[in-house]
Structures are given as structure tokens and as C-alpha cells.
Specification:
The chain is mostly helical. It is 73% helix and 6% strand. The protein has a two-stranded antiparallel sheet with strand order 1-2. Helix 1 runs antiparallel to helix 2.
């Protein structure tokens, strides 16, 4: 049911996934820019999930839906990042590890 899946999602995001992202963010391969990106994503994911939970506990269904859609969007941002990264790897553009702003053409 929705409540069971919501309970599992809530607890996995609040107590495992988002905190793990915050802990590993300083060690991102892309340098400080990537670290900040992971940090902001982790905070946003935790916060939107928490606000969605708070809304449903207050019987604010519309607010719950809005916050949880935001939470899922942040969760799926990692999936979309992997897809875009995979598509870019099929092209001749390679992003150097360690400096996300430097790109070289493969010859």
C-alpha cells in the first residue's frame, strides 16, 4: 500500500540515503564544485522528504503531494545524471576527472 511504501521511502531517505550523500560529498571526484552539488542535493532531498512527511502528519494532503513530488525529483536527479553521463561518454567529449569545467576532444 501507499503508506507502507511511503514509510520505507521516508526512512531510507531520512536515515540512510541523504545522510550518506552528505557524508561522502567532500570526497566527490569532480572537485569542490561536485562536492557542493552533492551537498546541496543531499540537503534538498532530506528537507523535501521531511516536509512531505510533516505535511501528511498534519493532514495537509496537497502540500504532502507537492513536497513528495519534489523529493522524488531530487531522487531521480541521480538517475538522470547517470543517463546524461552515459550519453556523453558515447560522444567524443570527455570530461576530465578532478576538474568538471575542463573538457577535451578525443582525437
Amino acid at each position: 500500500t501507499h503508506a507502507v511504501l511511503g514509510y520505507l521511502y521516508l526512512n531510507s531517505v531520512l536515515w540512510v540515503a541523504a545522510p550518506t550523500g552528505l557524508i561522502i560529498s567532500p570526497f566527490a571526484k569532480g572537485g569542490w564544485l561536485s562536492a557542493i552539488g552533492f551537498l546541496v542535493t543531499g540537503i534538498g532531498w532530506w528537507l523535501t522528504t521531511w516536509l512531505g512527511y510533516r505535511a501528511i502528519m498534519r493532514n495537509e494532503l496537497q502540500q504532502h503531494v507537492c513536497w513528495m513530488v519534489r523529493s522524488y525529483a531530487i531522487a531521480l536527479s541521480a538517475v538522470f545524471f547517470r543517463i546524461i553521463h552515459g550519453l556523453l561518454s558515447l560522444t567524443s567529449i570527455v570530461v576530465k576527472s578532478g576538474n568538471p569545467t575542463t573538457c577535451d576532444r578525443v582525437t
